[in-house]
Structure formats: C-alpha cells, structure tokens
Amino acid sequence: MKFVSIDVGIKNLSFCLFNKKSDSNYYQILAWDNIDLTEKYESKCIEIEKNSLCGKPAKFIKDSKCYCLKHSKQTNYLLPASEFQLSFLNKQKIQKLIEIANKHNISYEKPCKKLELVNTIHEFSVTNCFEAIVKTNANKVDLVTIGKNIQHKFDHLFKDHIETIETIIIENQIGPLANKMKTLQGMLSQYFIMKNNNIRIEFISSSNKLKEFIKENDAKLDYKQRKQLGITTCIEIVSSEFQYADWATFVQNHKKKDDLSDCFLQGLWYIKNKL
After folding, report:
1. How confident is the model over 198-212, as pLDDT tens digits?
2. Count of alpha carbons within 13 Å of 25, Cβ hemisphere only?
3. pLDDT tens-digit map of 76-121
4. Cα–Cα distance for residue pair 61/134, rounded to 1 Å
5. Are 238 and 253 in contact (CB under 8 A)?
6. H, E, C per residue of the chain
C-alpha cells in the first residue's frame, strides 16, 4: 500500500512516499524530498565530490555550468562583485577605474578614456566572473506558473508510482493568511485526481503530527519550539528504526529539516491512526 504525505509550500514543498508490501508488517520510505515550485528546474552543482555528483544547490553559473559556493571557490573564475557592474562603473571617476583595473591585472591602453576603461573592465568581468543565480520570490510567482511546475516536477517524481498510490494526505491550510496555500492545496489535490481518479485525498490537521510526542510540559511551546521538537523527533525515529535508517544521513544534512520532518511525522500519524 502506497501513500504520499505532503507538507504544503511554494518555495519549500516537502513530500514523503510511504509503502508497505503485502508480505511486510512495516512501512518503508520510497521517496522523500523538498522541492521548489517557483522554478521549473532546480540548479544543482555539477562538480564531483567523493566520486559522485555534488548536487548541492547552485549559487553561480558559468558557460551553462552550475556551481555551489564551495566548488565555485575552487575554480579560476571570480565571484560576482558590485565593482564589475556597469551601473557602478559608469559612476566612477577615471582614477577609481584605474584602481579596479590594476587590482585585477586588467590590461588597458594608456592614456585611456573613461568609456574605454569602463568597457574593458566590463568585458573582463563577462569573461572571468561567475553570474549569480537569482532565486525567484515566492510571493511574486503566479498560480499558472506554479501549476505548470507542479505538473513538470510531479510527473517526474511519481511517474513510477502514480498508478499504485492509494492515498494522498495533505496538511490542511487554514486561516486568512493561508489563502494562497489553500489554493495550492486544491491544485495539488486536482493534480493527483486527474492522474489517478481512484486516489483518495485527505486533508490532515497540522496539530496531528506531534500529538503522540508532545508531553504535558510541551503544551505551551511556541511555533519555533514546535518546529525544533518535530526535527528532533524525526531524526530520533529515522536513526533508531531500521526501516527508515537509510534516510538518517539525508535528513540530518538537509537544510529543510523542519519541512521534511513535518511531512514524515504526518505520515507516521496517519499510519498509526488511520491504517
């Protein structure tokens, strides 16, 4: 039996695909990740680290190749700097431009005119500097773009499972500040319904995932403390229970432990209380 637990987000949507084989007494995780719905493609570092692809989120790009901060420093390219931007260069006096050129060993004709030196420095930067990868602001992404990215990413993520997934559980979005998230909740539901009309969709209260782990003295925890409790609980479980052990390092090293933990614990609650 397969089901997917989803923690709703535009910039950070986390999902966990659980599965229990017919001859097994426990559930395993087939897929678990955090994805960005603001971009169709996520830029990953292409450098090799310990005989495998680095795969960390890329910060810079050069000649269509992406690099994380660590690996960008291991190349001969320079990081982007304001002193190379045309808007900055055009405002500088000739003496400042000469200082920038000398600092980076940029050759130029002497005597030189300001416009020529500005162009020389800028051309140097185009050839020798990385271009920063600018992340999209989640608040500025329209719903049509989000919908297209859901289709593109989910088609790839669930292509081998969509016909055999029985249930999708999605954290229910409530409150006046969650209008866009509520819309996204509906879009996610519609995606799975259109892919497999037999799939059951359930909306789960956010309070459920920590119910079994909150002690009496935890009742007054604030939002940040509850998030930390979720992370701690998740890591303890995946590190101690053999069926999840392969994912322990993945969670511990991930920058979005909180969202990964939320969808995982929501899935555990569903297993214990609904299945």
Report:
1. 999 999 999 999 988
2. 1
3. 999 999 999 999 999 999 999 999 999 999 999 888 899 999 999 9
4. 10
5. no
6. CEEEEEECCCCCEEEEEEECCCCCCCCEEEEEEEECCCCCCCCECCCEECCEECCCECCEEECCEEECHHHHCCCCCECCCHHHCHHHHCCCCHHHHHHHHHHCCCCCCCCCCHHHHHHHHHHHHHHHECEECCCCCHHHCCHHHHHHHHHHHHHHHCCCCCCCEEEEEEECCCCHHHHHHHHHHHHHHHHHHHHCCCCEEEEECCCHHHCCCCCHHHCCCCHHHHHHHHHHHHHHHHHHCHHHHHHHHHHHHCCCHHHHHHHHHHHHHHHHHHC
Question: Domain residue spans in the chain?
Answer: 2-39+136-274, 43-74, 78-132
Structure tokens at 204: 């789960």
Which overall architecture, per CATH, does domain 2-39+136-274 show? Answer: 2-Layer Sandwich (3.30)
User: For residue range 93-104, what is the model confidence (pLDDT) as tens digits?
Assistant: 999 999 999 999
Q: What does the buried/exposed string (b/e) look like for 27-56 if buried means 16 or more CB atoms within 10 Å of the residue's CB? A: bebeebbbbbbbbeeebebbbeeeeeebeb
Chain centroid, CA 103 distance in Å: 37
Question: Which residues partner with 169 through β-bridges?
Answer: 5, 202
